[in-house]
Write a structure and sequence with these properties.
It is a single chain. The chain folds into 3 domains: 62 residues, dopa decarboxylase, N-terminal domain (Up-down Bundle), CATH 1.20.1340; 255 residues, Type I PLP-dependent aspartate aminotransferase-like (Major domain) (Aspartate Aminotransferase, domain 2); 110 residues, Aspartate Aminotransferase, domain 1, CATH 3.90.1150.170. Helix 9 links the parallel strand 4 and strand 5. It is an alpha/beta fold and 498 residues long.
Length: 498
């Protein structure tokens, strides 16, 4: 052996079918055991900063190890320190759904491991995505203008942030066609004080000056939704200053309180001023498959784009975000760049053949085969099963809201929206200046118990506790137990003050 030549080792077979079956089965059994035992763990992680680094070696492994040993270490080192998003007692943020069908779809996505960035790269994966976008759009009650069958179209992203950035880029470039090169410094983006922060981040990333982002105040009088008058006043003030209204966000189910903006009225306003209207239905969009909720997007045909996240409340494992647009050409012209190696010499360009190249609908080039997850979920549960899942969570939220109202120590801050309940602990003898402190303490002791996990929001300068129901394994008994936990901890806090 020549000096300096490394010793020969056995050739790896990382995709040996027999080994693949054995090790994958071990992983599936591990996850099944995790779900079986998930209620044994505190819902919110109790890990201290740096705790894992102290347990693991500073050096990467030189030699491979059996999968059983790796899974044993996952159980010992990783699982106990997780915040368990799939716990039936997880009520924080908004739900991050999982299901058996979603997991199977994820296995197929990862196992097939294709990259449908152009039609020719993965023809049927590309076409399945188009079909899925039309299927879900129809279930949600979106008008034909958002469907491929009606001249629009849709794409699967990983997150709302990606979808928002793409629509902001499209809106920006559409506006620049009629403005000077300095026009971007005059463009203004509008959202409410309840809109997700991703819109501010997206505007910043596409070059909109932070000073040109308008946060429009909402109020209890309009259930914390935007009003046409408030938006019009902000737009008129900007026009008077020589600025250009570019983009307006309307939300169906805001993160803080689940507010619903008047989509149709805002659509008329946006068209009048030449703004792009995006409808963010990341959470509540899943509920639109139930006919009783579809009035929330009345007039959505006046919008330019709509997004929703199946990984929130549609029994689809992370990550998966649907984005629909009424004018695919506007989106793709802003995002399309085609190097020579991606030119399809066998079929001609996508534009000429009507084929879809999804690389032109997103930021990145490569992409996952997310459509197969949606296909498996929709095939496995059907619209009937998906609606039943939404409705049972809504019924649980209704029960929790009524239980709070029956205890005069609590107040429901805004009427329940979908499966979100926002409330405060407010003993009658407490002054306003101490109520926030009491609620902070209540939230902390509930979460510290390990029996439930919720977060807070600020509404009209009030500290408010949010209970967002949507975990796949949550049953009515978990809701009752959580309410009793809240009552118990509230009683303890009250006694401490006596």
């Amino acid at each position: 052996m020549a000096m300096g030549t490394p010793p020969l080792v056995d050739v790896l077979s990382p995709l040996d079918p027999e080994e693949f079956a054995v090790e994958s089965r071990a992983a599936v059994d591990f996850i099944a055991g995790y779900y079986r035992d998930i209620e044994k763990y505190p819902v919110r992680s109790e890990a201290e900063p740096g705790s894992l680094r102290r347990l693991l070696s500073d050096e990467p492994p030189e030699n491979g190890e059996p999968i059983d040993g790796i899974l044993a270490d996952v159980q010992q080192y990783i699982v106990p320190g997780l915040t368990h998003f799939q716990s039936p007692n997880f009520f924080a943020y908004y739900p991050f759904n999982a299901s058996t069908a979603g997991f199977v779809g994820e296995i197929l996505c990862a196992g097939l491991n294709v990259a449908p960035f152009t039609w020719v790269a993965s023809p049927l994966a590309t076409e399945l995505e188009g079909v899925m976008m039309d299927w879900i759009g129809k279930l949600m009650g979106l008008p034909d203008c958002f469907l491929f069958s009606g001249g629009g179209g849709g794409v699967l992203h990983g997150s709302t942030c990606e979808a928002v950035i793409c629509t902001l880029v499209a809106a920006r470039d559409r506006a620049l066609n009629r403005l000077t090169h300095e026009g971007i410094l005059k463009m203004v983006v509008y959202a409410s004080d309840q809109s997700h922060s991703t819109f501010q981040k997206g505007a910043k990333l596409v070059g909109i000056p932070p000073s040109n982002f308008r946060v429009i105040q909402t109020s209890a009088a309009f259930s914390y939704g935007l009003t046409v008058d408030s938006v019009r006043n902000a737009v008129e003030a900007d026009i008077a200053r020589g600025l250009v209204p570019l983009y307006l966000c309307a939300t169906v189910g805001t993160t803080g309180v689940g507010a619903v903006d008047p989509v149709g009225e805002l659509g008329e306003l946006a068209q009048h001023y030449g703004m792009w209207l995006h409808v963010d239905a990341a959470y509540a969009g899943s509920a639109l498959i139930c006919p009783e909720f579809q009035d929330c997007i009345q007039g959505v045909g006046l919008a330019d784009s709509v997004s929703m996240n199946p990984h929130k409340w549609f029994l689809t494992n992370m990550d998966c975000c649907c984005l629909w647009v009424t004018s695919p050409a506007v989106l793709t012209s802003a995002l399309s760049i085609t190097p020579e190696y991606l030119n399809d010499i066998s079929h001609g360009s996508a534009a000429k053949t009507g084929m879809i190249d999804y690389k032109d609908w997103q930021i990145a080039l490569t992409r996952r085969f997310r459509a197969i997850k949606l296909w498996v979920v929709l095939r496995r549960y059907g619209a009937v099963g998906l609606r039943a899942n939404i409705r049972r969570h809504v019924e649980m939220a209704k029960w929790f809201e009524l239980a709070l109202k029956a205890d005069d120590r609590f107040e429901v801050i805004v009427p329940r929206r979908f499966s979100l309940v926002c409330f405060r602990f407010r003993p009658r003898y407490e002054g306003d200046h101490t109520v926030d402190a009491l609620n902070r303490k209540l939230l902390n002791v509930v979460n510290a118990s390990g029996k439930a996990f919720m977060i807070h929001t600020i509404v009209d300068n009030k500290f408010v506790i949010r209970l967002a129901i949507g975990a796949t394994m949550t049953e009515m008994r978990h809701i009752r137990d959580t309410f009793e936990l809240v009552q118990e901890k509230a009683t303890e806090i009250g006694q401490d003050r006596d």
